[in-house]
């Protein structure tokens, strides 16, 4: 989020400095699977869906732009996502999801068992059916982080790594910069894009919702030849095949603070989920496992938009959809910084607490 916002602000004519406690994209971005799941990840129609769909529509051109600026290919793949139902109860949930998506005009194919397995033979014979979301694609998050950092550097952005932001600096009703453990940095515009660590900055105004870490464990295996071609998404997890034979299996949802440990219980849960959907992965070669910290909010909505102080903006709390919402978030922040109204309704994501109309 930080590097994407920096890119758009640089293109708008701002001089931009990014303060990073480690490396850009080294935390939740690097730990993500990279599913652009505007349909597979979103549970109902509404402003959040519209935000996700709008961002997904930007990604093909966004990938080309980043490649031109950074010479890094983010491995944008448009193979689609199969949302698999393993039993009749999940089948009913999938049917309900397809209904509201079709009402919204989204692209959904409803497949029975044989149709789903014809499209993806790796699927278990015990599935009852699937929804196919042809417009949900994928990218490689690590390459995305590398491309964004390269693009920002190419345009003159300044990176200060190892700078832990301690507090916000204000003058009256305006944000004027931040304080780190190494000193003060003054700025006309301050964008809080600290992921799960965003709420640890002292001096921030009260937020609409809590932002906290939610751990997720992922296993990477390797298969040759590939076992599957498309992202397989279930009600317990997902399988993400890469073109080079890597396969990501994830992910747990664990509320355990800033603990990024990989646990035997988590590995068992992820592996069991994946083999239930695609048994052929049992013979894949284990490569590595990791855990990341998603920036989760109490109300399930991102914290996105202008804060109550002039010059203060938020781009955090994207939870499971940070990779997907990268281009739209950057565009919205750049619009707001320049005094322009975003094209989408972002009122539900406002950083400040909503005021009761009767109070």
From TrEMBL:
Annotated signal sequence range: none
Pfam families according to UniProt: DAO
Keywords from the UniProt entry: Oxidoreductase, Thiamine biosynthesis
Pathway terms, separated by semicolons: Cofactor biosynthesis; thiamine diphosphate biosynthesis
GO biological process terms, semicolon-separated: thiamine biosynthetic process; thiamine diphosphate biosynthetic process
Gene Ontology MF terms: flavin adenine dinucleotide binding; oxidoreductase activity
Residues annotated as domain FAD dependent oxidoreductase: 1-336
PANTHER family to which the protein is assigned, alphabetical: GLYCINE OXIDASE, SARCOSINE DEHYDROGENASE-RELATED
Protein name, UniProt field: Putative glycine oxidase ThiO
Species lineage: Bacteria, Pseudomonadati, Pseudomonadota, Magnetococcia, Magnetococcales
């Amino acid at each position: 989020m930080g590097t994407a916002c920096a890119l758009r602000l640089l293109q708008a004519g701002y001089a931009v400095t990014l303060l990073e406690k480690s490396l850009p994209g080294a935390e939740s971005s690097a730990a993500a699977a990279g599913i652009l799941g505007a349909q597979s990840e979103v549970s109902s129609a509404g402003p959040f869906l519209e935000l996700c769909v709008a961002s997904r529509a930007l990604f093909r051109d966004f990938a080309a732009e980043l490649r031109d600026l950074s010479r890094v290919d983010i491995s944008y793949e448009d193979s689609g996502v199969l949302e698999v139902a393993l039993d009749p109860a999940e089948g009913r949930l999938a049917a309900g999801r397809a209904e509201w998506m079709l009402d919204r005009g989204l692209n959904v194919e409803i497949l029975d068992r044989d149709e789903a397995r014809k499209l993806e033979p790796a699927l278990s014979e015990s599935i009852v059916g699937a929804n196919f979301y042809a417009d949900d694609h994928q990218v490689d998050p690590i390459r995305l982080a590398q491309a964004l950092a390269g693009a920002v550097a190419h345009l003159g952005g300044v990176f200060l790594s190892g700078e832990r932001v301690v507090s916000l600096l204000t003058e009256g009703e305006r944000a004027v910069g931040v304080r780190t453990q190494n000193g003060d940095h003054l700025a006309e515009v301050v964008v809080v894009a600290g992921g799960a660590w965003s709420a640890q900055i002292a001096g921030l105004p009260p937020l609409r919702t809590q932002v906290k870490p939610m751990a997720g464990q992922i296993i990477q295996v390797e298969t040759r030849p590939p076992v599957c071609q498309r992202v397989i998404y279930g009600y317990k997890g997902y399988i993400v095949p890469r073109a080079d034979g890597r396969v990501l299996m994830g992910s747990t949802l664990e509320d355990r603070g800033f603990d990024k440990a990989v646990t035997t219980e988590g590995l068992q849960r992820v592996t069991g989920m994946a083999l239930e959907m695609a048994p052929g992965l049992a013979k894949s070669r284990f490569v590595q496992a990791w855990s990341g910290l998603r920036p989760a909010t109490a109300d399930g909505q991102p914290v996105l938009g202008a804060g109550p102080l002039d010059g203060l903006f938020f781009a955090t709390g994207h939870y499971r959809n940070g990779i997907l919402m990268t281009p739209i978030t950057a565009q919205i922040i750049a619009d707001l910084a320049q005094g322009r109204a975003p094209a989408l309704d972002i009122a539900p994501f406002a950083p400040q607490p909503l005021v009761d109309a009767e109070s």
